Predict the structure.
Amino acid sequence: MKRLLLILIFTLSFQSWTKADDIKDFEIEGISVGQSLLEYTLPGEIESIKSKWQYPNDNFIIYKIDKVIDLKKFDFLSVTVKKNDNKYIIQSVSGGIDYKNLNDCFEIKNEIKIMIESIFKPDGMDEKEYMPNDDKTGKSKIYGTQYYLKPFPSVESITINCAHMSKESNINRALKLIVASEDYANFLINDAYK
């Protein structure tokens, strides 16, 4: 039942949009790339929503924005901001929905793909299956779809992943929807784990 409700919510929430021209037009829980984190929290509260998990290279900082807003569609939500950006401009938005059954994740993922393709004319798309970095058991798999919104070499993207984590990993299984600016995507590819 929850699965059908989520599909209906996604369908209705995306249908109101017309064709988008820019990644900033795509919102997750009302938040988009290019907004300021200060629109949702006070400067003195920002440190309290900083995620405990950060990349080894700390040029971008992850914030758990779900600590200061009420979520309607997702189980968790985070944003990233460039380190030392006193305007706290959001460079990525990442929402997640926990799941148990992989087919449920695939069904929601396919609905989101349809909605993205009705909103954007992507310049390219990749479908990949790969092993996640954060599971050392080797038993987990990510089923990913990535939409590139500008011509190569741009890596600005919207990504939908079914992170099917093994029970041994002790990491929740989740569908993740990620909107990433060019700067953040380049950071992930080239520097995040250095």
